[in-house]
């Protein structure tokens, strides 16, 4: 919904071989490549807040390594969506529209160092600034930004 509201298109690979859940791109105005970003999406019903950040501990090392570093041609982001613990409160339908009780935060791991050993279930902590709320406008800005700038 956010991508559509931002005038962007969503794509998803048939096979998940590199930890990317979906990509978002700007429609190309003509021949050539369209600007795009790729995202790994996680959810949490037990958010941990502090120091102006959402602290997320649900990312294993292998998933982290699929987002970290500056070796990707298309910018990659971690999106963490905070959902209600009670799944009955996730959404409500009204005659005027649909209400979703979720909020997503986004961050780049481009400047983070990869784990040399990604075996096992050991995870890592990622802090997502509360200012990085994923909205149609912020999503469009991510796609429009040069990957070097979008940190």
| Overall outline | globular
- How many angstroms does the end-to-end distance come to? 24 Å
> What's the number of extended β-strand segments?
10
CATH class: Alpha Beta
* CATH architecture assignment: 3-Layer(aba) Sandwich
Identify the strand order in the major beta sheet. 1-2-3-6-9
Structural class: mainly beta
Major sheet: size, sense and barrel closure? 5 strands, mixed
Query: Secondary-structure element sequence?
Result: HEEEEEHEEEEEH
Please explain how this structure is put together.
The protein has 151 residues and is mainly beta. It has a single domain, classed as 3-Layer(aba) Sandwich (Trna Endonuclease, Chain: A, domain 1). The chain contains three helices and ten strands. The strands form three sheets. It has a five-stranded mixed beta sheet with strand order 1-2-3-6-9, covered by helices on one side. The longest helix is centred in the C-terminal third of the chain and has 9 residues. It is globular. It starts with a helix and ends in a 7-residue tail after the last helix. The C terminus is likely disordered.
Short description:
With 151 residues, the chain is mainly β.
List the helices and strands and how they pair.
Blueprint: H1 2-5, E1 9-11, E2 22-25, E3 36-44, E4 48-50, E5 53-60, H2 61-65, E6 75-82, E7 91-94, E8 97-100, E9 103-108, E10 123-129, H3 136-144
Output the keywords.
37% strand, disordered C terminus, Trna Endonuclease, Chain: A, domain 1, 3 helices, mainly beta, 151 residues, three-stranded antiparallel sheet, five-stranded mixed sheet, globular
